[in-house]
Write a structure and sequence with these properties.
Helix content is 0%, strand content 40%. By secondary structure, the chain is mainly beta. The protein has three domains: 118 residues, no CATH class; 130 residues, no CATH class; 99 residues, no CATH class. The strands form eight sheets. Strands 9, 10, 11, 13 and 18 form a five-stranded mixed β-sheet that branches. The protein starts with 9 loop residues before the first strand and ends with a strand.
């Protein structure tokens, strides 16, 4: 490759011979200087349609250039694209390198500067990624996701279905919903797609359950520094999950959803205190927390719970006049402490746990 040298004028003065550099050479005194003589000027430009100079550097022949000096104290290059070119969906522009050519069209090797040159910012497309967190209540569920899932690809569901324990209820796992408040879950793959337009997606637009969607303010606006994007999820209907900037990786949080079906609680009726020889005179399984309402003479029980209507007539076993019913909840280990072995409220007896009830007579 042909070398490029700066022109040097040598002036011989009558009082003595003094050589002076003209053009590119000057004594270094700024950033990175060690009081040596710099040889070449490197100018840095952005990628705007009409490139704007954003910095400069003085570099000795054969040395590398890898920094940008601020044009003034107020401004520094932001390393963001200013091309105004629409970025394909699912991507963002990322600064990659500086590139340029010398006057003879030879590409500049930034590791060995050989002359004055201009360098221009070059950008590449990088896929937008999202991270996924699966939660069961406040607990994070482990999953196979690496936290850098590209838009348009699937996030792997946790391999083990979560569980929920809630006294008085059967709680089958029903899938995952958006943490922001989904009421219906799904068990299929989770997808992420892009959607252009302003505001929420059209209600007529339907994606698979669990689809996550970004709505860009205007077509091709991903290059703008100030752009932010609404982030929607589909679970029966569109839900706004949040807002993020194009420089951030959005996080989608999926919450485990569970059904809640009332359990049955066995209530056993005695004709007296079972600890004093009372005998079983009847039993019934009530839905959890059902109030046990006695008739006026307190010798029968009737009502309706989640299992339907019920009627338990104990009259034939009770010849004396009943004052009230009392009893205790089960002492079983799985019964919550708030009920375990506790006395049933005689003013409002409830099937809050398996229990025994017996009458107290006048």
């Amino acid at each position: 490759m042909k070398k490029r040298f700066c022109l040097t004028s040598v002036l011989l003065l009558a009082v003595g011979a003094v050589s002076t550099l003209a053009g590119c050479e000057e004594s270094g005194s700024g950033e990175g200087s060690t009081n040596r003589t710099y040889t070449y000027t490197v100018r840095f430009f952005d990628d705007a349609p009409t490139p704007v100079q954003v910095g400069y550097a003085y570099v000795a022949e054969g040395e590398s250039v890898n920094f940008v000096r601020k044009m003034n104290d107020a401004d520094a290059y932001d390393y963001k694209t200013h091309s105004g070119i629409a970025v394909p969906f699912g991507n963002r522009c990322v600064f990659d390198h500086w590139a340029g050519v010398y006057e003879d069209s030879t590409p500049v090797d930034v590791t060995s500067i050989q002359g004055d040159c201009d360098l221009y910012a070059n950008f590449v497309y990088a896929h937008l990624t999202y991270s996924v967190v699966f939660k069961n209540g406040s607990d994070v569920i482990d999953s196979d996701n690496d936290g850098a899932i590209e838009w348009g690809t699937f996030a792997a569901l946790p391999q083990t279905a979560p569980t929920k324990s809630l006294w008085g209820y059967d709680t089958p796992f029903e899938g995952y919903g958006f943490e922001s408040g989904a009421t219906e879950g799904w068990n299929g793959g989770l997808t992420a797609k892009f959607l252009h337009g302003e505001g929420a997606p059209d209600s007529a637009t339907k994606y698979d359950e669990g689809a996550a969607v970004v709505s860009a303010p205007t077509a091709g606006s991903f290059y703008e520094d100030t752009s932010t994007y609404d982030f929607y999820g589909f679970s029966g209907s569109w839900k706004l999950l949040g807002n993020f900037e194009d420089t951030l990786r959005p996080q989608v949080t999926y919450a485990a959803l569970f059904g809640e079906t009332l359990k049955d609680m066995l209530v056993t009726f005695y004709d007296g205190d079972p600890d004093s020889g009372g005998n079983v005179i009847g039993s019934h399984t009530f839905s959890y927390s059902t109030s046990i309402t006695f008739s006026a003479d307190k010798k029968s029980v009737s009502g309706e719970d989640s299992n339907g209507a019920f009627n338990l007539d104990l009259t034939s076993f009770l010849t004396e006049k009943v004052n009230y019913w009392t009893g205790t909840y089960s002492n079983a280990a799985d019964v919550p402490e708030r009920f375990r072995g506790q006395t049933v409220d005689r003013a409002d007896p409830k099937a809050a746990a398996p229990c025994v009830l017996y009458p107290v007579f006048f």
